[in-house]
Predict the structure.
Amino acid sequence: MAKEKETEKEEVTEEVVDEQTNENEEKKDENTTESLEKQMKKLEEEVNTWKTDYYKVFADMENLKRRLEKEHQNSLKFMMQSFIEELLPVVDNFERSLNVQNPSEEVQTFLKGYQMIFDQLMNILKKNGVEVIEAQGKEFDPNLHQAVMTTQDENFDHNVVVEELQKGYKLKDRVIRASLVKVNE
């Protein structure tokens, strides 16, 4: 009988150990499942963070690309501006020399040659996007004209350019030199 009791004790002990092992395994499975779920959530959050960062960097790169293209187009469009600004006083002097009053026969022949050269120069400037700003008889526009004098003339309306003292020029759509004008009050 003692053997039977021992065998029963061993069986009960084995059952208790088996139950505890099963409970421990179930707890481990639950802990493992919970741990895996936590890891999965953490990894999903990390993936979302990486995705967000990627989209931000991608958008920044696209914006940079567009800005650089626009700057490049503007630099191509206005690369001649400084050269033309330096050339404008030469054009002014050419115009003054062509406006000689009562020239002699000899000077008139020179003036014809000067006029041809001047016309060529103006055609080249026009091909490169340089335009003369019209001022005489137009309404005063502070974006295009610089008023250096005012006058009261009944023949002109209020705020109209009476006289152009120096021509203004635009390169494409940018004013490179405003017209110096006399404006009617």
In short: The chain has a mean pLDDT of 85. The radius of gyration is 45 Å. Helices lie at 2-77, 81-98, 105-127.
